[in-house]
């Protein structure tokens, strides 16, 4: 089984999806990871393939709660904020801003731009940024990698 398939399996399991990834899920990841830049439409297309029925929370009233976290309310600002975040991620890859992949992931998950599929799309965006930075997102399972990145960041703060 390839590294990408293992990544998608790990990403699904984090969401409680305990099965092998579908061909559609693998293809969605391959397509996203091959993009040179990311735009809102790219993430919408990805989410529609891995979580059919999920929608961008671009209309007022499309509010969600994620455990104790209350993301920003649904509405046009969600689209603008997602667009701005994706621009920052692309600029970080180009060295124009300092935004580490785990920081971008935290921002994305806090925004929670979709009604569903945010965890898997957020991890795919994280992998996209890692690849663009010349880092292997598939060397360790996502949670292990995130743990070590958090430790690395914490050590730099001391």
Structural summary, described in words:
The mean pLDDT is 94. α3 crosses α6 (118-132) and α4 packs antiparallel against α5 (101-111). By secondary structure, the protein is mostly helical. The longest helix has 18 residues, at 76-93. The chain has seven helices and no strands. The protein has a single domain, classed as Fido-like domain (Fic-like fold, Orthogonal Bundle), CATH 1.10.3290.10.
Summarize the structure.
With 158 residues, the protein is mainly α. It is built from seven helices and no strands.
Write the layout of secondary structure elements.
Elements: H1 3-14, H2 23-34, H3 40-50, H4 76-93, H5 101-111, H6 118-132, H7 142-157
Helix pairs in contact: 2-3, 2-6, 3-6, 4-5, 5-6
Weakly predicted, low-confidence segments: none
Into which percentage range does the β-strand content fall?
under 5%
CATH superfamily: Fido-like domain
Outline the biggest β-sheet: none
Our count of domains comes out at: 1
Total E-strand runs: 0
Average of per-residue pLDDT values: 94
Using the alpha-carbon principal axes, give the shape.
globular
- In CATH, the topology is named Fic-like fold
Helix content: 55-70%
| Sequence of secondary-structure elements | HHHHHHH
Structural class: mainly alpha
Number of DSSP helical runs? 7
């Amino acid at each position: 089984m390839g590294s990408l398939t293992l990544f998608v399996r790990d990403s699904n399991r984090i969401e409680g999806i305990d099965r092998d990834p579908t061909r559609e899920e693998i293809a969605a990841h391959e397509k996203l990871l091959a993009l040179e830049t990311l735009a809102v439409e790219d993430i919408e297309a990805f989410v529609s393939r891995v979580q059919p029925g999920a929608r961008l929370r671009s209309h007022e009233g499309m509010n969600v709660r994620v455990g104790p976290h209350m993301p920003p309310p649904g509405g046009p600002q969600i689209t603008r904020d997602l667009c701005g975040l994706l621009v920052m991620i692309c600029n970080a890859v180009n060295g124009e801003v300092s935004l580490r992949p785990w920081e971008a992931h935290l921002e994305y998950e806090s925004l929670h731009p979709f009604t569903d599929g945010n965890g898997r799309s957020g991890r795919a965006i994280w992998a996209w940024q890692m690849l663009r930075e010349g880092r292997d997102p598939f060397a360790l399972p996502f949670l292990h990698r995130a743990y070590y990145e958090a430790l690395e960041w914490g050590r730099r703060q001391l």
